[in-house]
Write a structure and sequence with these properties.
With 63 residues, the protein is α+β, with helices and mostly antiparallel strands. The chain is built from 1 helix and 2 strands; from the N terminus they run E-E-H. The chain has one domain. It is globular, with a radius of gyration of 13 Å.
Length: 63
């Protein structure tokens, strides 16, 4: 198994400015809502990441 050295992010990442300096671990991608006014779901299909992939992201951050 190959070790990653960066946390996975499906870009673009949408989050409020108040969270700009916080650690971001993506457990899902896209959005399950289909709001006409929102741009966040145009590029990403909604999916929930595998738990093993999320654990790899946590390992990278805490090594």
């Amino acid at each position: 198994m190959q070790q990653r050295n960066e946390i996975y992010y499906c870009r673009p990442v949408f989050r409020p400015p108040s969270e700009a300096n916080s650690l971001l671990i993506q457990v899902s991608e896209g959005c399950s809502f289909k709001c006409d006014f929102c741009m966040s779901n145009l590029r990403k299909k909604f999916l929930i990441r595998e738990i093993e992939e999320i654990k790899k992201d946590l390992d990278i951050n805490f090594l």
